[in-house]
Amino acid sequence: MSNQEANHQDLLTIAGKHYTSRLLVGSGKYKDLRQTREATDAAGAQIITVAIRRVNIGQDPKAPSLLDVLPPSQYTILPNTAGCYTARDAVYTLQMARELLDGHKLVKLEVLGDEKTLFPHMPETLVAAEQLVKDGFDVMVYCSDDPIQAKILEDIGCVAVMPLASLIGSGMGILNPWNLSLIIDQAKVPVLVDAGVGTASDAAIAMELGCDGVLMNTAIAGARDPVRMARAMKLGVRAGREAYLAGRIARKFAASPSSPMAGRLA
Asked: Most buried residue among 80, 101, 188, 248 by CB atoms closer than 10 A?
């Protein structure tokens, strides 16, 4: 598919590959692998992020593998470094993932600052990002909602920046839409909200702001009915994107009649 065709169809493009879905989902916290697959399909997701330190994709040949239910032939597997607190650990983890996935280049980098907030440790994130890009990885990166840090990561060569909306797993939604807007306005690579989404309206708001996509896990896996929530998130992302492309009316401190006053019958 050409870039011109991709733009015409409003596809999400990351590292030169085109996707019809702008909803990325995680693979953890489900009750079993069957539910993981059902929720992933209900979400319509094509990119599935996998915590290499927590999910088996071949590290343990004797245990069930996530790839049995989400094969790389059908989905883009996105290894991530959840649980890493140093650049060194993150780089090593993704190098291991590349070996397990036969040279796979697209990865999600996250280097955490502490166990309580799970905020990104930006100095270590910058170090890891630079090393991974030099090593030939296509790096999508979890980061703070700081426009300056996001720009530095883009300049390093990351293929997407992924600022948090609020704390990982908090379900608090987008707490600072202004910072997200600043990041979106300056970015020349895709901007995807990562962390903090709680329900479909949060996803819609992110897309209405102009985000290129949304990544979530807990909001779906932790719902009372994960498969139904996955469908809701798909619709929320789609509705938000359509509203963004349509262009909302301007906010103003005055009423405006729905029907024109000129030419009325009486």
From this structure: 80
Instruction: Catalogue the active-site residues.
Output: 108
Which of 21-35, 51-65, 137-151 is least confident? 51-65
Question: What is the pLDDT averaged over residues 196-213?
Answer: 96
199 contacts 220 by C-beta, under 8 angstroms: no
HEC letters along 70-108: CCCCCCEEEEECCCCCCHHHHHHHHHHHHHHCCCCCEEE
Do 145 and 164 form a contact (C-beta atoms < 8 A)?
A: yes
Q: Read off the pTM.
A: 0.89
* C-alpha to C-alpha distance for 70 and 263, rounded to whole angstroms: 61
Give the sign of the dihedral formed by CA 44, CA 4, CA 243, CA 187: positive
